[in-house]
Give the backbone structure.
Amino acid sequence: MRYWIARRRGLPIAYILWIEKGGFRPDAVVELEQIAVAPDLRGKGIGQLLVRQSLRELRQEVTRSGRRIKVIEVTTGSEQGAIRFYRRALGATVVAKIPDLFRGTELVLLARPRIRARG
C-alpha cells in the first residue's frame, strides 16, 4: 500500500492510494484504491498529474523488484463522473458491473499499461 500526497503551501490538496494485489507474482496487479482532490481545485489537472507521477514511481518500485505492472484496477460508482477521469488518466475501460453494492451499481475498470521493450 502506498500513499502520495500533493501539497500546496504546505497543506494537503490531493492524495492517491495504490494497493498491490497478488503477492510475489512476476506480474503485479495494482488497484487505484482512492484518489481525492480538494473540491475547489477539481478540474485543474491535479488528479491526472497525481495519477501519472505516482504511477511512474510505483512502476519504478515494481520494476526494481524484478516485476512489472500487468493490470491496473479501479472501482467506482456508476453515478459518478469519475469514469471519464479514469478513462483519460489511465486508459481504463469498464469490464464489469456489480449491482446494488455500496450506494448503487459499482463499476470495475481495468487498464493495461503499455510495456516498453527492453534493450
